[in-house]
């Protein structure tokens, strides 16, 4: 048996590949497209869910909500969509991409102003951003990143948007804003409080930023999903007390 | 056919052409830089016996095969704010290439360099040495021989490579996105604008920009091909 002849090798390879494919097919795979700010907590919750539901395999796709809905428009095989704002969710429902009856809010959040932990430039309030020492401020792209739109609402309310506009660097997702600040390439950025909590050693939270629509995370099953029941079960799990506890520990508010 | 084209024409009117001018400016300056380094290094590689020139050439050719993300990260490591060079520039000159169009120029120049270098070294290697020797017998200085004999003979090859480099710089996306980001009116070049339009679902804008980019690139490639074939056509 040890002396396997090479001519059997292709057959063994075929058997292995087919076996592997069979195994993968037997597990039910759910694809969840979720707002980038949920990355860490959903990975943790997903692993727990997989452990308690053998046979279910979760595949996460994290990006800015606007990018995710666009992927669904283009026909991405997604079962559950979790947005970081109402606007993107409404866009999906209007275009009949999502099942409105399945819609549930799973969490809420808060926008904060962050600076690099090194704190070379003193920033204590929104108005300090107009100072000459602040060269660049990172925000989410307005067209696709919800936190960018929340930021614009707050800065419009504070009458600072126009003054700060030349300093903006537009990021692809809230996590890219976090990365720009953490690397010190910008003097400040606007993210959610939960994102600031992911890199406590690299970024410092200056203040809560108000004056924007409340940050909710609506989730809905896609119209094209072939596994609506399984997707609904996972959505129900996210609303269970144990999952809500985990979301709370990660800094998210109640839905 | 008119039904499908109608939204295209309406999109044409509403389009902001700043990304096109930015692309031309970034690619133009990047090509100039790549041209200087490429011609110099091409001559060193083809005509000198400098020790380590093969290694030098290999390093300069790397951007042709490395993923743009590696180039982008490399530039951030070498010139980002946290780097020694970036920190020094920031401290003494209050200058940073990250998130400025200069960053996009550096990224584009790095990826365009191999195209100039390769065609320049091939062009220099193809220059008839007896012509240079003849010029030297006429008491021309080495610099004069280079400027009046070698460079003109190598020019078509170098120019073709330079046009390719320009086309490549126009198409730069990955490394520039990492270094310069996509700031409208500042670093949002054509390729960035297409990326943003597709992500936001603005298909008409994306399509128009794609057409503009394609027409420009094809024009440059046709010009480049003409220059590559012309020298043979001219030989009697």
Descriptive account of the structure:
- The complex is a heterodimer of chains A (255) and B (236).
- With 255 residues, chain A is of the alpha/beta class.
- Chain A has helices spanning 9-26, 39-52, 65-73, 86-94, 146-157, 161-164, 174-182, 193-196, 228-239, 241-249; strands at 28-35, 56-63, 80-82, 104-109, 111-116, 137-140, 168-171, 188-192, 203-208, 215-221.
- Chain A has a 5-stranded mixed β-sheet with strand order 2-1-3-10-4.
- In chain A, strand 1 (28-35), helix 2 and strand 2 (56-63) form a beta-alpha-beta unit.
- In chain A, helix 3 packs parallel to helix 4.
- Chain A starts with 8 loop residues before the first helix and ends in a 6-residue tail after the last helix.
- Chain B is mainly α and 236 residues long.
- Chain B contains 11 helices and no strands.
- The chains are: A alpha/beta (255), B mainly alpha (236).
- The A-B interface holds A 64, 66-67, 69-70, 73, 135-136, 141, 143-144, 168-172, 183-186 and B 76, 80-82, 96, 98-99, 181-184, 196, 198-202.
Note poorly predicted spans of chain B.
none
The third-level CATH topology of the largest domain in chain A is D-Maltodextrin-Binding Protein, domain 2
Helical residue percent of chain B? Answer: over 70%
Number of strands of chain B: 0
The percent of residues in helical segments of chain A reads: 25-40%
Largest sheet of chain B: none
Give the chain pair forming the largest contact, with residue counts. A-B, 20 and 17 residues
Going across the biggest sheet of chain A, name each strand in turn.
Answer: 2-1-3-10-4
